[in-house]
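From the thread on structure requests for the teaching lab: each student submitted one protein with a one-line request. Submission from student K.M.:

"Model Phosphatidate cytidylyltransferase from Nitzschia inconspicua, tokens only."
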Amino acid sequence: MRNLQSSNSSDQRRHSGVITWPILVGCALFLSSRCTVASAFSKGGATANTHSPSKVETSIANSPSAIQAPRHLASSSVLERRRKRTHRESATAASIVHSRHGHDIEDDAANPHNDDPTELPVLSEIKTQHYADTASAGKENFRQMRRIKIAIGLVASIGAMATAAKLGILPGPLLESGQYGEYTNMMIARDSLSTAVAAVLAVVLVKAITFGYEQGWYNSKIGRKLNHTLAAPLFIAFFPAFSEAEGARFFAGLVTFSNILRLYLAGTGQGESTLAQTISRSGDKKEVLGGPFIYVCIFHAFIWLFWRNSFVGVIAMSTMAAGDGMADLVGRKWGASSKWSWSDGSKSKVGTLAFGLSAFVVSFSLASWLIATGCLESTLGSSDLAARLLLISFVTAFVELLPFGDDNYTVPGCAAIMAAFLLH
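Reply posted by the TA:
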């Protein structure tokens, strides 16, 4: 019985050993196949898969072509990187076009996957251009707000003047008794409307001259003299639009005062840069605070002091505007060979002749216009008036030749003194 049991036990051990050895051999073969596949992929430079290999993968790994598979995968990876790089370059080129139209370019500049160092200068240039466009837009918005504030200030000033006229603070028309009459509502409305229209026309004139400069029709020197020649005479010709009240001069002074503010802002870099470039000799904005600014300030003072019922202000401003402006324009073009030897070397005989003739034509035309519209009263006949204005024009033309003094002061000062003595 014991022998039978021991024989059965030994048979069971033999059977279990027969079953166990194949299992162990299979496990060893399985582990060996995994190590072979991992070694092959590591030699080819590919990354190992995280999933367990199937029988098909094991057979492929054991095949002779298994070593070549990672190289194909590596080539595919290189092609994929090149494709992505080409795509990024196309996106960069597109971003340049979009940035010119104000589109956002920050996404391309902040791309953390941009590993191509050759793209960094391009992105830096795009970003710099974007910041420059933003700064330019900010300056333009600032200037636009300045223009709006000046317009609002002008409207508020007109309202304040109208209130002062209504309250009797501003004088009405001068009566024969030497006293001032009532500043009627019709006069107030007329002066308010005339001020607004004159201010708009002044802006239109400056914009027209600036437009010609931007189109390249003339340089800044010619643009400056065009504004110098036309601004004052055209506004003087508009004087009859105001009422006969003495206080109308203060309404008209608002137009010149608004231009003073515009020129000051342009000269200090806070206003229209194109305006500063147009009315300066060399395009430097600081030159606006020189001759052009003095010109408008003197005109503003003559309006408040003499208005339209005196020859002094009218002749002084028309002589300075037309004479000095045309002397520069004509002399610059045709006077290079006819310089005055005793002057500062920049004045020509042709320019002096143009000064005298232009000053005479404009001053005589404006004086006749104001006399015809009832703004000026004169006891002189037309021929006598013309002779005296011709004398004033050519005397001031020679005053402009003097190598000392600023002709922005000497020319209107001489014309005003002569008009006060010769015209009545």
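TA comment: The two ends are 165 Å apart (CA to CA). The chain has a mean pLDDT of 76.
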